[in-house]
Amino acid sequence: MAAASSSDSDSGRAESNEASSKWLDAHYDPMANIHTFSSCLALADLHGDGEYKLVVGDLGPGGQHPRLKVLKGPTVLTESPLPALPAAAATFLMEQHEPRTPALALASGPCVYVYKNLRPYFKFSLPQLPPNPLEQDLWNQAKEDRIDPLTLKEMLEGIREKAEVPLSVQSLRFLQLELSEMEAFVSQHKSRSIKRQTVITTMTTLKKNLADEDAVSCLVLGTENKELLVLDPEAFTILAKMSLPSVPVFLEVSGQFDVEFRLAAACRNGNVYILRRDSKHPKYCIELSAQPVGLVRVHKVLVVGSTQESLHGFTHKGKKLWTVQMPAAILTMNLLEQRSRGLQAVMAGLANGEVRIYHDKALLNVIRTPDAVTSLCFGRYGREDNTLIITTRGGGLIIKILKRTAVFVEAGGVVGPPPAQAMKLSVPRKTRLYVDQTLREREAGTAMHRTFQTDLYLLRLRAARAYVQALESSLNPVSVMAREPLKLHAVAQKPSRRVGHTLQLLWPVPCLRQAPRSRAGHARSRLGTFLPRTGGALTAMVQGLGPTFKLTLHLQNTSAARPILGLLVCFLYNEVLYALPRAFFKVPLLVPGLIYPLETFVESLSDKGISDIIKVLVLREGQSAPLLSAHINMPVSEGLAAA
């Protein structure tokens, strides 16, 4: 009975979660064996029958045996092998003729394979790059048997380390061989010409001349050679070529090629470059603090995911708008566009199995999956307009359908501005004085700013001079010498009573931290190595009415393990006003960390109600410059004044 009741409660909880969710679970296959990224997923009506299929550029388990798969519903419709790992997949219209069925473009290695009706249609290969002349000369010498394979390997390794032009694939394969395999490889390939071929790293589509959904589009390719290529959709010729400072890994475009367009490329150097039409080089640059893991354009905002587990929003000119922190690492990103409601949001797949949907920095929805998400794709699948395709790290496939009644709202309430934004502020009326002052600031703004800057620099200069003078004159309660790390605290009080008040010093003196020791064990006492520290200041607390005061000095050795010996304490004072029976005495051995109280008496001799300063100096035997100093502003002796 208990087991039955627990199973009933679990089923009821699952039903309630499904009822409150915005998604319908259409399909889940943990053994689908699909290993891909978001850039290798595409949804399109490949046959023109209104049935949208899912195109997958599958990397294969462990990156072995890549294949092109086309899914219809949960089943694989067709499957064909690929010569290299896929980099991106995209669907686009090549021409305006009927029937207007989209073509499929799959970037793999140095080629773009174009399919129409799931049949091979065209193969575009990237143009070859000029080989390294030194590498070409070495292979020519090997062809004429003027150098042996071992010498060829040593010289190719030197070229690879120093040359700006990278080696060809043939040379790179040769450097990976064992010594016994080199001679056979050279005999087989020495008669072949050296070819240096780059590969495609990313791909997207750009509308040609119309912004319609069914308009003709161009292919935009990013290559390992730090270039962007725009291809003609019919002749597959290069329409435009742009250079980047680094290798592009993510692309986002907007606009039309024949009118005006913007292109954003996230690169391996951690920057996002923005290009415009007729620009051969980037116009704007967004410097990120970490490597990008995704790039999505939401309306006019570029959303970038970084390896620091955060999403960043930027304008097309590189201005940062917002930042959202994620609970886990971001593995993939893609766009969610619900055309029926005019909603665009960004989806982020996390390493903890969550899919988070954000509109700007507002969280709209969280989807939890049984494994880490590796790819996301949202769009029309089959005959459902709003379908979410998710693949997991273990090769699983998840298909979810957005409910027709689902409405995305922010986690904190309804989408829109905060209610406080609609409140009218009670702005006071402008007075005549305010208007005159505003006009004066407009006319003399430059002169006022220069005057302010001059006064500010003078203030900083005087503060720095006073600080240096205090260090050089030892006018500070903490020693700046690393060999004698001391701290001083002075208290003056009357022995008979404990009724007193607190006095401030003549000027505040910052406490300082000692310089770290060097590797050789010697201490450094440069001014730039001392930093201010909070909580340490010399104070003099006077208790009593006079004329006799008890002066207590608290001396502390702030060293970690080294005791201090051979210190002296000296008092400088006006002998007409004060008398000290012990104006000079020795300090005992100071153990690190302990506070030693040193006491003496001060007697006020004046009956005129005046007071003066008593200077306390801590010295080392044989040295004239003090290690520490303190100025005690003595109070008026109220006993003599009353008499």
From TrEMBL:
Keyword annotations: Acetylation, Cell membrane, Cell projection, Cilium, Cilium biogenesis/degradation, Cytoplasm, Cytoskeleton, Membrane, Olfaction, Protein transport, Sensory transduction, Transport, Vision
Broad class of the protein's primary localization: membrane
Classification via SUPFAM superfamilies: Quinoprotein alcohol dehydrogenase-like
InterPro entries the record matches: BBS1 (IPR028784), BBS1_N (IPR032728), GAE_BBS1 (IPR056419), Quinoprotein_ADH-like_sf (IPR011047)
Origin: domain of life: Eukaryota
GO terms for MF: patched binding; smoothened binding
One biological process term in Gene Ontology: retina homeostasis
Location of the Bardet-Biedl syndrome 1 protein GAE domain: 538-638
CC annotations in GO: axoneme; BBSome; centriolar satellite; ciliary membrane
Record-annotated Bardet-Biedl syndrome 1 N-terminal domain positions: 23-276
Localization, UniProt: Cell projection, Cilium membrane; Cytoplasm, Cytoskeleton, Microtubule organizing center, Centrosome, Centriolar satellite
Quaternary structure, from the entry: Part of BBSome complex, that contains BBS1, BBS2, BBS4, BBS5, BBS7, BBS8/TTC8, BBS9 and BBIP10. Interacts with the C-terminus of RAB3IP. Interacts with CCDC28B and ALDOB. Interacts with PKD1.
Identification of the protein by name: BBSome complex member BBS1
Native source species: Callorhinus ursinus (Northern fur seal)
Lineage summary: Eukaryota, Metazoa, Chordata, Craniata, Vertebrata
